[in-house]
Amino acid sequence: MATLDQWPFARRGQIEGAFDAMAEPNRPLSPHILIYKQEITMVMSIVHRITGVGLYTGTAFLVWWLAAAAISDGAFAVAQGFFGHWFGKLILIGYTWALFHHLLGGLRHFVWDLGKGYGPERYTMAWATIGGSVVLTGIVWLFLI
Amino acid sequence: MSFRTPLSRVTGLGSAKSGTEHFWNQRMTALANVPLMLFSVWLVITLVGADRAQMVATFANPFITGFAILTILSAAIHMRLGLQVVIEDYVHTESTKWLLLMLNSFFAFGVAIIATVSLLKLSFGG
Q: What is the ipTM of this complex?
């Protein structure tokens, strides 16, 4: 028997500040992100979005690199110097990881688009994305560059 | 009985005036991006520490330049659609939202055009 302080009933103030405007205590709430136990798939969801925004922003570096190459020797030397510096490399390593993470995360989305992968295998796919992105980034930076 | 006009029935669109293009284009460019990005990672690795002459020599190959431009275009469409959703999800002030959506388009098209023109210039001898 559910009592009134269990989901979907939440006491006012249980989710701090979020429902200050509500006049009624014990009003049923729709499922809210703060109610659920944190799961790896939830983290993966927001990381997919964050890496997407990161990749978006990072295209500015790609454009700089290509435009500098098209403009002059001096401009390209500055760009290559930046990406050869440890700080530039740090950005590139981060970009490589974000790319592989977003790519593997995208493959998970294809599985879901096909109507599959909603069972417990979703956790396996989440961890495989994390592991795969780290391994692929490692391969690129430890063995290829 | 239906009150829909013949045109409305043919286009199959409701009052939103659009259908699944956003979803479909996002998935289509996502699929294209998989091989294109793997190619691009390989390409960039071969050009680490390159000088300009090496860049010109590499992009003199029309296949490399062609796939590089495909990558840029597919990525630009994909990232524009993606950030559009992010903006629509988090920005609820109408004026700010429309301004950011415009800037999003400017950035995506700007990236696509500058990169493409740069690649073509390199391809035709720098």
A: 0.88
